[in-house]
Design goal:
Layout: H1 3-10, E1 12-15, E2 27-35, H2 39-42, E3 49-59, E4 63-66, H3 67-72, H4 78-91, E5 96-99, E6 102-113, H5 116-127, E7 134-138, H6 144-169, E8 175-176, E9 179-180, H7 181-195, H8 201-210, H9 214-224
Parallel strand pairs: 2-7
Antiparallel strand pairs: 1-7, 2-3, 3-6, 4-5, 8-9
């Protein structure tokens, strides 16, 4: 069984977060991944124990981009770029898309009594009425981070539809001359923050360069950062 099928077949989300990914703000999810101990895979030890890994995933505010933007950005392999290039050909290079960025912070690990099924249900019972976003995941010990990625993918997929609808109704998905309206708005906010000294020159410069807009805004940029 390949890695993909192994994770897909052996990862199960026991408790999904109470709230979907926010369209206009960060979203934080505390996760609890329950697995069998590694020693159970390499020994005859029969004690019913489980490993719980706790952590925090922070999803940044979704950014409206275009297929052309995704293609131009670094960090993608040749195969991924070819896929994005073909996607742009089919859908149009200025078709709006949403870019989701995540930060994972693993906090602690504990070993408790009980098999993973029992333990994950216990955690679910304890957290199901919490007002905080929690996810309980039953995964694979040596691939727990891949199990976490599977959860993130599914969570994003279920949230994306409402994110698109909200952004579309507010006009933020509109693209003018290859630049999403929301990008122009974000650039204006960065300039306002820069005038108050709250944005570093390199951060604003990167945003402008990413969209090939530095030449258009350079006079404003240099008037602030002399």
């Amino acid at each position: 069984m390949n890695l993909f099928n192994l994770v897909m077949n052996n990862t199960k989300v026991i408790l999904t977060p109470k709230n979907a990914l926010s369209t206009y703000n960060q979203t934080k999810v505390r996760y609890h991944i329950v697995t069998e101990p590694l020693y159970k895979e390499v020994s005859e030890y029969k004690s019913e124990e489980s490993v719980i890994r706790h952590g925090l995933v922070t999803a940044q505010t979704p950014q409206v981009v275009t297929n052309d933007f995704l293609y131009r950005m670094s960090g993608f392999g040749d195969e991924a770029k070819e896929f994005l290039k073909e996607l742009g050909r089919v859908l149009g290079k200025n078709e709006p898309a949403l870019l989701y960025n995540y930060k994972n912070e693993s906090t602690d690990l504990e070993i408790v009594s009980g098999n993973p099924t029992e333990v994950s249900e216990r955690i679910k019972s304890r957290l199901i009425s919490s007002d905080t976003n929690h996810a309980v995941i039953r995964g694979i010990n040596n691939l727990w981070d891949v199990s976490l990625l599977k959860f993130i993918f599914e969570y994003t997929k279920t949230s994306a539809k409402s994110n698109f609808q909200e952004l579309n109704s507010s006009g933020m998905l509109e693209v003018k001359n290859g630049i999403p309206v929301s990008v122009r708005k974000r650039i204006e906010e960065l300039f306002n923050q820069a005038m108050m000294g709250n944005v570093r020159p390199k951060d604003l410069h990167k945003e402008l360069n990413d969209w090939n807009l530095f030449e258009e805004y350079q006079d404003r940029f240099f008037s602030i950062f002399k």
